[in-house]
Structure of 4-methylaminobutanoate oxidase (Formaldehyde-forming):
Amino acid sequence: MDRKLPTNAKVVVIGGGVAGCSVAYHLAKFGWKDTILLERDQLTSGTTWHAAGLVGQLGATASITKLRKYSLNLYKDLEKKTELSTGLKQNGAITIASTKERLQELLRQATAAQLFDVNVEVLDKKKVKDLYPVIHDEDIYGGVYMPEDGQADPVGVTNVLAKAAKMEGVKIIEKTPVEKILIKDGKIAGVQTQFGKIDCEYVVLATGMWSRQIGEDIGVSIPLYPNEHFYIITEPMKDLPKNLPVLRDYNNCLYLKEDAGKMLVGIFEPNAKNAFKEKGKVPNDFSFGEFPDDFDHFEPYLEKSFKRLPMLETAGIRKFFSGPESFTPDTQYLLGETAEVKNLFTCCGFNSIGIASSGGAGRVTAEWMINGYMNEDLYSLDIKRFQKFHSSKKFIMERVTETLGDLYGMHWPYKQHHTSRNQRILPYHDELKKEGACFGVSGEYERPMWYARNNEKAKYEYSFDYQNWYPSVEYETNNTITNVGLYELSPFSKYEIKGELAHIELQRLCTANIKNEIGRSTYTQMLNVAGGIETDLTVICIKKDHFRIISSAATRTHDKAHILKHLSPTLNFEDITDELVCLGIFGPKSRDLISKISKDDFKNEKFKFGDGKFVNIDSKKVWVQRLSYVGELGFEIYIDNKDAKEVYQLIVKEGKNHNLSHCGSHAMDTMRMESGFLHWGHDISPEENQYEAGLNFAISFKKEINFIGKESLLKLKEKIHTRRFIMLSIVNSKPGAPLLLHEEPIYLKDKIIGRTTSGNYSFNYKKNLSFGYVKSEYSNEELGKMDLYVEVAKIKYPVMVEAVPLKDKQTRLL
């Protein structure tokens, strides 16, 4: 075929499914008219064409709910604009609960949905039956109803987006596979097709289930893989009421959709089946394809559908469908710029909710590209939340057999996956296990979350109320403030920057005045140009022209990408996270303990808060710095891997003389809240600036260098910030009553004025703590005298304002 392609463009979007068409439309609408969309076959030919077409707003997280609400409104608007039909039918949707725990989950989701004005009605059993008269309701506890939800034609939605994109100036070219993505100096340069090359500045991978292997070919990690997804369509059913709401029965892994007198019954089951398992790769020519029937796999869920909707038992099956749908390691989308290649963005990984999500996902992708940053808290959807190992075939193929089921599984607080574990274990892993460690995943590491006591099992018993690990955290936090606790900090991200210009570059990247003195540390943030907080970290001067950066375990790829994006290539940058183990000993007896295993002087006069130095522990050279994320006197000890087990054993042996206890991540998270310390990804993100977060003490306008975000901060400095960080505690609360997490609405009387970002129960202070943000003309002090509430699972609890952290910061300066 002889075809003339444009030779250049601003953006090439690869993939003509619903996501690609949405990105192209939004890019052009926001001003980037020079956008080309290339589809290897025909629009919708990947997975879009066989989607069930459910358009629901209520998601497992607040971020997803927000994007799905936008999608619904967009599709309605574009129908009018294009004069094409999306097939949208807003017949509502019901999600039922057949256990008390599921009802708790639904009520929490419905509560969070109020933050975005999503209309959600809580139903009792009678109301469920009224709305869905053919349902078997004997085991139902209740449910939620979204009257504006419904269903749409996936092909219709895509065509509407495609036409709207063309109306804005986008060129859409089908039957044009991209053979190669062209990269120069780590940045997008263009794409190569059989019909010619297109030079471009940006590429968007909206390539669905092909994305992982496309990324692999150019050294980019895109962690998703397709499973087989099943549904049946019945023959016309004589007595089936018309316009029934969509029905979701999570406990039985079912969704049911009435359409033109027939019923579609689909499943999201545990122990899902990998697609293309033998080859481990999606064929390039797999268009409009289906898999052979696997009735044995589907039958147990079909039986469950008969119990939920008895009239199905006598219905004939017109179509048995099995086709591929891609899933990610945590059932969240993959959006944003990749860590490996500048100006290469992804918009994929929708975990079977692409029709409901793509409108909003396309919008934020376009904004991300045009602005160069995000001003919303979207880290839970950012592709850079993952590391390289997440996209390996071994990891991802095993993990997605679990995460497909997670879509309808219980979204328990603190839930841990059981597949693809033990990717990286600590040198003393077995010793921690003997101490009773219950492990969770932190980055790539197996890390103790808590330690079982009194011969209890080191295993989570999931709940939306009292947590079975509370007795452990009570002991661990109390022992830390009275004696000494040993904390595992090895997963913290650790980078080193070396070179003559290292200090100047860090001054440009960071907001604080970075101390250029060996052994001194600086707590700081890095910003985007709009002043949004991109990273939260500590910088330590190790030697002359040699600095170490410590940040969160979960943000390893994200933080590294941000630093490298702005760092001069003349400097040496190295990720040393896996080279050093880090142990924290915190508490009033920590100085006594470390003084017994090292001959160095750790007295306050010689080793002040924030200092660091090399010391010897039993002839092992280690770096020790006096910092503490739990707010107590304490020391972080950085040890070479080869020496880690021996040093750990020395600490534990001597620790017996100081009542040392092993302490997990839950204890540390509780104590950092007692100390008023914020956590990036929960309490701070690009959506916040340092003035709103109360972190303006980490800004230095005195340093001469023009650091990233400075101009925006100067403007923000003069503003009155009605949105700001707040610390709350529930009046007369008990452990787990209620269980505070995040995304709970904060009320002033009967009006929502904010949302929570973190929650924990403090056993040391007997308070149920919550961090969050409020937007109000009243000061926090004034709010403290008013009627404030936090709503959890549709119940409002009175709260009081904590004007200062519970823990006196002087304790860590002793």
Summary: The mean pLDDT is 96. The two ends are 77 Å apart (CA to CA). The longest strand covers residues 751-762. The chain is about 25% helix and 30% strand.
